[in-house]
């Protein structure tokens, strides 16, 4: 196990390095310039500004410098925010995004698992159809439409929750979290139902039942544990999906998160923020995938973690 | 099985139900809000005793503050905030006329119009120290210092302040800039040539003073957040962390004219979605909300709707030479045909529907006035108006000259919802009115459009311009041969000569200068059809009736809150 | 009772001979995998109904723009933002051309002097929503089907090979996946769209370039789960080739999850396209998809709900149909659920 983990960690660093390299060159190939008033400047004035940001050097040199700074943990300065370093920006914006993302994921997956289990255990009853219905509605409405509805009804009409902004503490996070939870909820409930139905019809469940195990015991001890496996494999992509969701949700609810800033950075060629956030999300994803793989081995003893050694 | 059928019927019903709820929502919504208002009214007597007209304004911003270092600001939000937290030699007043601010009365101007000597009034920075002439000298030279890498410094000062052009070309040291503090309270500015609109420039953000001692002491940290800045204007900034979506302006007790300032605080939040900002407005959390066309239509009869004419103009740029190759748009008749072939009135009133006006001109309405107060627009009137017959005649002629029967042209536009909708309309108009014309649309982010513009890789571009100072020259100078904004291979020696005269030998003769500028506009639009004006932007807002005295400006910072106050909120 | 039995004559009984060869006789006609599946899915009414709904939507997406009296791209500005009006139905008080204008309920058709019918109303440029919705459905379905198909082919092949062969192959393939999955999709998508001519192809490539990873991971996990199970081991012991094990033992077992996953890919693709239009990178106008239509409609939700209603309704119908059909297919394809 320890050997496996060490090897994986080395791979993680290689992965991270490759991503950094790929993103850097891809980003440099994007058309456009980060200097917003370029057309107002004469060539000599423009040259001064470009030199200040190191944009006058050949791309490989810029790459070398960037990687050296990255190794030192320096992500550079933003182009849009002229007085802010990228690290500062990410640190400041991380909190709200993290709160929304984790709340959305936990809420969605928990309810999804519950709905999926109910559906599987009470197959072809009104419970089953009810939970399927919720899952379908969850994926039938794009999150930005759902968020607009939530904001209008819960915020403006009924006045239960704050309309938007990040000012009322935890209450501000409720609506965006619900909006974010719809995707994971649908995915989780569908997967759990499918898996549980399959597991419940397998021989060892029949055996467990015939040995007199209670319905509860069968459901949780045997069926649920096995049904969780495929769900674990989609957790990584789900977490990544929340990023996409957060771009939209944070913008609609005016939340000072990272996602809200990401699209704008790409549109305005803010190289350092694009790199910084891409690397940050990549690191996050790599770690999530790593953890998922470890979990996978713990939940399903049939999968051996020795990987390439057999 | 029956249950499953029931299931999808039920889900369908649920979805439909959601929408019906939304449709029905409108009337119910207005009802609830009136109910709430009544509720508020019944509770007011108690509150009135507690707070007698709290002078607090709550506003939305559509973007963050990228920086408040006045040498580095390039965007609307930055200039808007600076206009309220800081003050230069001049300030735009309630009538949008530049009046002396930190300058104590009008400056003395040398006979050749080259040397301006300003006396400064007694004014303080927010830390209590006095604003001195050196603060101006330092700030302006800092903006020209290559180490600062300011974009607007060289842009605003080149050709205006003595030596600025040479400094940005690297032939002269930045310390040689034509600005000098004669003593604590006397500032001498030397110009490159007489500039008739020089005093209106003095209200612009790039010309704000900076306290040298403070800036050098802060070093790297200068302007990183609201504590790392000094203010000498009506308000000071609070709670800004450099990249955040929220901040406040608080009344500045050190401001020399603080008795005029009535507001005690302005709370800002960045809200990028129109729907969200309207919802916050409806909820009473915000006092103003910008509207897009769709919303404007629905609030058409609302007493809280406010339309403001903006001074940005949008036009078609006809690229005559695409990536080194002569394009069909080099033909004047083709340009004329396209200029006249789309209905601007419908575009402004139905498609944009946000208070924009059809533009048959390049110098905006309500922007510049001659000495007798006549609008430049009244002098020059309309040009290249919508006229299908003339368009078609020119089109036939142009096609014949090119020896083709059909043309495919690309329109390069922005990627906002509004510009997409407008481009779709323009495409349909041009294709309907000009036989044999096929338009393809290309909609890209601003930075990409800028690059395509620079490399001249487009046929027709929807571009716009907002003025940087109060003179038609800010628009006319765009089309100088080889100019940084031309980027469409337009060149007319007569036009170039007029530009030279306007800022040269005619500089001190306002009447002749005015005529020359009128002629130049005619050449661009009516004679050469180099560009085809589309519309003058308008802005629509919902503003609470108790918000009074907010002044909106045609250039520089968008608003002044110096004179704003709250009345009748309770 | 017992006496009665004794009264029955002995010749009423016939002796049965047990023929051991008869036990092996196949009494039902031999059915292929797909015939069997079809037999079972036919019994699932919800799946059949869904299939008809899908068929209807697909046909309408081609026929719809043709039967409408108005063209999808003709702009009649004087007819902008009209609510739906359908002959016949208007007398019932629904779809009668009434809408709110500045807070009042008025007949907008009368107000704007329009004497034609727009079945789904018009948009802000006075274009017929009926034609546009069906045209958009066509585009969305095309994007979704193409993306789902590419995702499925690449994902199943990649995940299958990786999981089945395991070892070094799996290791290398999973490292590649990790690198791909680590790059936030959005960066790639925006790159693709800025590089290529913006349009349907760019969007399909952008969706599929990382879209297949989810499928490949699920398939790999399933293959890993099944490849060490007893029946596979038994088959291997009996000398079955890899091809036979994959096609006869593993594939049928994981077909269910592939289908469900694909059923999720299709709405996923439609949604991603909608998301792209939300951030301003969707289709280039005047082309429309359900995504761009919903995005446009979402902005005017409080005033012109019909612009959001119809594309959303069709999207929801598509989702529900795809899901129920997926459920039905899974039940039908899963060999363990044979009755």
From TrEMBL, chain A:
The chain crosses the membrane at residues 9-27, 98-121, 133-154, 174-192, 228-253, 273-296. Keywords: Cell membrane, Membrane, Transmembrane, Transmembrane helix, Transport. Signal peptide: none annotated. PROSITE patterns: ABC_TM1. It is a multi-pass membrane protein. Residues 94-296 form the ABC transmembrane type-1 domain. InterPro entries: BPD_transp_1_N, MetI-like, MetI-like_sf. One of its GO terms (cellular component) is plasma membrane. Its main location: membrane. It holds the Pfam family BPD_transp_1. One of its GO terms (biological process) is transmembrane transport. It is found in: Cell membrane. NCBIfam families: Opp3B (NF045471). Belongs to the binding-protein-dependent transport system permease family. This is ABC transporter permease. It comes from Psychrobacillus vulpis. The lineage of its organism: Bacteria, Bacillati, Bacillota, Bacilli, Bacillales.
From TrEMBL, chain B:
Residues 27-47 are annotated as: Disordered. One of its GO terms (molecular function) is peptide transmembrane transporter activity. Keywords: Lipoprotein, Palmitate, Peptide transport, Protein transport, Signal, Transport. GO terms for cellular component: ATP-binding cassette (ABC) transporter complex; outer membrane-bounded periplasmic space. One of its GO terms (biological process) is peptide transport. InterPro entries: Peptide/Ni-bd, SBP_5, SBP_5_dom. It is a lipid-anchor. Its main location: membrane. It is found in: Cell membrane. Residues 1-21 form the signal peptide. It holds the Pfam family SBP_bac_5. Residues 27-42 have a biased composition (Basic and acidic residues). It comes from the Bacteria. The keyword Transcription regulation does not apply. Residues 99-486 form the Solute-binding protein family domain. Belongs to the bacterial solute-binding protein 5 family. This is Peptide ABC transporter substrate-binding protein. It comes from Psychrobacillus vulpis.
Automatic annotation (TrEMBL), chain C:
It is found in: Cell membrane. CDD domains: TM_PBP2. InterPro entries: BP-dependent_transpt_permease, MetI-like, MetI-like_sf, OppC_N. The chain crosses the membrane at residues 46-67, 139-164, 176-196, 202-219, 254-283, 303-326. It is a multi-pass membrane protein. Its main location: membrane. One of its GO terms (cellular component) is plasma membrane. Residues 137-326 form the ABC transmembrane type-1 domain. It holds the Pfam family OppC_N. GO terms for biological process: peptide transport; protein transport; transmembrane transport. The keyword Transmembrane applies. Keywords: Cell membrane, Membrane, Peptide transport, Protein transport, Transmembrane, Transmembrane helix, Transport. Belongs to the binding-protein-dependent transport system permease family. OppBC subfamily. NCBIfam families: Opp3C (NF045475). This is ABC transporter permease. It comes from Psychrobacillus vulpis. The lineage of its organism: Bacteria, Bacillati, Bacillota, Bacilli, Bacillales.
């Amino acid at each position: 196990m320890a050997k496996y983990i060490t090897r994986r960690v080395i791979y993680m660093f290689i992965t991270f390095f490759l991503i950094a390299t790929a993103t850097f060159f891809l980003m440099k190939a994007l058309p456009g310039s980060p200097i917003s008033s370029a057309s107002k400047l004469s060539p000599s004035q423009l040259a001064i500004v470009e030199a200040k940001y190191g944009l006058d050097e050949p791309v490989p040199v810029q790459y070398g410098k960037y990687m050296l700074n990255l190794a030192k943990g320096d992500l550079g300065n933003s182009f849009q925010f002229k007085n802010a370093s990228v690290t500062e920006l990410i640190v400041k914006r991380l909190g709200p995004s993290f709160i929304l993302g984790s709340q959305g994921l936990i809420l969605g997956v928990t309810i999804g698992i519950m709905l999926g289990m109910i559906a599987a255990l009470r197959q072809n009853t009104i419970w089953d159809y009810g939970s399927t219905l919720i899952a379908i509605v969850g994926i039938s409405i794009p999150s930005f439409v759902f968020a607009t509805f939530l904001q209008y009804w819960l915020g403006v009409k009924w006045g239960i929750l704050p309309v938007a902004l990040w000012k009322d503490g935890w209450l501000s996070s409720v609506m965006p979290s619900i909006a974010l939870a719809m995707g994971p909820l649908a995915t989780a409930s569908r997967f759990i139902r499918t898996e549980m139905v399959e597991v419940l019809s397998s021989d060892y469940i029949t055996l467990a039942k015939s040995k007199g195990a209670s319905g509860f015991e069968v459901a949780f001890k045997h069926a649920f544990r096995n049904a969780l496996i495929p769900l674990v494999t989609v957790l990584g992509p789900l977490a990544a999906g929340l990023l996409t969701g957060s771009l939209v949700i944070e913008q609609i609810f005016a939340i000072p998160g990272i996602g809200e800033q990401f699209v704008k950075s790409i549109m305005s060629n803010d190289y350092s923020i694009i790199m910084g956030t891409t690397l940050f999300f990549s690191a996050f994803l790599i770690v999530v995938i790593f953890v998922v793989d470890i979990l996978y081995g713990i939940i399903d003893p049939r999968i051996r973690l020795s990987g390439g050694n057999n | 099985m029956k249950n499953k059928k029931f299931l999808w019927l039920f889900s369908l019903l649920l979805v439909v139900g959601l929408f019906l709820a939304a449709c029905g929502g409108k009337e119910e919504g207005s009802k609830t809000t009136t109910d709430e208002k009544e509720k508020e009214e019944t509770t007011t007597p108690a509150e009135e005793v507690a707070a007698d007209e709290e002078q607090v304004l709550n506003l939305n911003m559509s973007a963050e503050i990228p920086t408040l270092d006045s040498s580095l600001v390039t965007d609307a939000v930055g200039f808007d905030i600076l206009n309220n937290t800081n003050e230069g030699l001049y300030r735009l007043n309630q009538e949008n006329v530049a009046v002396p601010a930190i300058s104590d009365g009008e400056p003395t101007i040398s006979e050749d119009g080259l040397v301006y000597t300003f006396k400064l009034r007694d004014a303080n920075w927010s830390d209590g120290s006095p604003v001195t002439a050196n603060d101006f000298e330092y700030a302006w030279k800092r903006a020209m210092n290559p180490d600062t890498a300011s974009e607007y410094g060289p842009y605003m000062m080149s050709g205006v302040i003595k030596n600025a052009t040479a400094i940005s070309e690297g032939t002269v040291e930045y310390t040689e800039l034509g600005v000098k503090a004669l003593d604590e309270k006397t500032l001498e500015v030397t110009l490159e040539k007489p500039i008739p609109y020089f005093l209106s420039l003095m209200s612009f953000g790039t010309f704000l003073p900076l306290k040298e001692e403070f800036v050098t002491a802060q070093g790297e940290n200068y302007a990183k957040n609201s504590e790392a800045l000094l203010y000498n204007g009506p308000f000071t900034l609070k709670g800004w962390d450099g990249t955040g979506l929220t901040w406040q302006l608080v009344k500045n007790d050190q401001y020399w004219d603080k008795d005029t300032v009535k507001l005690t605080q302005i709370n800002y939040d960045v809200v990028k979605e129109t729907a969200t900002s309207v919802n916050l407005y409806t909820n009473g959390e915000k006092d103003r909300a910008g509207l897009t066309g769709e919303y404007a239509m629905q609030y058409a009869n609302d007493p809280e709707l406010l339309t403001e004419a903006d001074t940005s103009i949008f036009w078609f740029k006809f690229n005559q030479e695409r990536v080194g190759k002569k394009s069909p748009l080099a033909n004047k008749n083709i340009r004329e045909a396209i200029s006249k072939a789309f209905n601007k009135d419908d575009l402004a009133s139905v498609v944009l529907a946000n208070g924009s006006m059809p533009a048959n001109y390049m110098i905006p309405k309500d922007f510049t006035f001659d000495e007798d107060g006549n609008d430049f627009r009244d002098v020059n009137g309309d040009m290249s108006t919508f006229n299908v017959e003339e368009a078609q005649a020119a089109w036939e002629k142009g096609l014949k000259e090119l020896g083709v029967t059909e043309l495919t042209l690309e329109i390069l536009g922005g990627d906002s919802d509004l510009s997409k909708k407008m481009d779709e309309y323009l495409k349909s108009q041009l294709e309907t009115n000009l036989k044999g014309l096929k338009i393809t649309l290309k909609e890209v982010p601003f930075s990409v459009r800028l690059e395509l513009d620079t490399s001249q890789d487009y046929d027709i571009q929807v571009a716009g311009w907002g003025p940087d100072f109060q003179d038609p020259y800010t628009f006319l100078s765009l089309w100088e041969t080889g100019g940084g904004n031309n980027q469409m291979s337009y060149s007319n020696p007569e036009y170039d000569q007029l530009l030279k005269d306007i800022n040269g030998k005619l500089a001190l003769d306002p009447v002749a200068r005015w005529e020359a500028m009128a002629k130049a506009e005619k050449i661009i639009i009516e004679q050469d059809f180099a560009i085809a004006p589309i519309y003058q932007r308008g802005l629509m807002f919902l503003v609470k009736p108790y918000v009074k005295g907010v002044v909106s400006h045609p250039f520089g910072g968008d608003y002044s809150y110096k004179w704003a106050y709250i009345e009748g909120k309770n | 009772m017992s006496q009665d039995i004794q009264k029955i004559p002995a010749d009423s009984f016939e002796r049965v001979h047990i023929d051991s060869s008869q036990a092996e006789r196949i009494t039902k006609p031999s059915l292929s995998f797909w015939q069997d599946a079809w037999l079972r899915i036919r019994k699932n009414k919800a799946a059949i109904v869904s299939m008809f709904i899908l068929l209807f939507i697909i046909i309408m997406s081609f026929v719809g723009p043709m039967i409408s009296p108005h063209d999808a791209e003709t702009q009649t500005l004087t007819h902008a933002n009209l609510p739906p009006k359908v002959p016949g139905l208007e007398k019932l008080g629904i779809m009668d051309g009434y809408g709110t204008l500045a807070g009042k309920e008025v007949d907008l058709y009368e107000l704007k002097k329009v004497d034609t019918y727009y079945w789904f109303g018009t948009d802000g440029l006075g274009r017929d929503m009926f034609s546009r919705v069906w045209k958009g459905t066509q585009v969305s379905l095309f994007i979704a089907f193409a993306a789902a198909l590419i995702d499925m082919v690449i994902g199943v092949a990649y995940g299958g090979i990786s999981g089945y062969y395991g070892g070094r192959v799996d290791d290398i393939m999973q490292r590649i996946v990790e690198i791909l999955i680590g790059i936030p999709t959005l960066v790639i998508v925006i790159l693709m769209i800025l590089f290529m001519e913006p349009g349907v192809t760019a969007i399909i490539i952008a969706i599929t370039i990382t879209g297949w990873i989810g499928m490949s991971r699920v398939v790999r996990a399933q293959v890993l789960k099944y490849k060490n199970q007893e029946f596979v081991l038994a088959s291997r012991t009996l000398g079955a080739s890899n091809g036979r094990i994959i096609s006869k033992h593993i594939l049928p077992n994981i077909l269910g999850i592939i289908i469900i996953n694909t059923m999720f890919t299709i709405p996923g693709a439609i949604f991603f396209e909608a998301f792209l239009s939300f951030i301003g990178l969707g289709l280039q106008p005047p082309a429309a998809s359900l995504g761009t239509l919903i995005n446009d409609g979402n902005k005017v939700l409080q005033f012109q709900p019909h612009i959001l209603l119809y594309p959303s309704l069709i999207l929801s119908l598509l989702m529900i149909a795809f899901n129920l059909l997926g459920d039905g297919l899974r039940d039908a394809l899963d060999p363990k659920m044979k009755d």
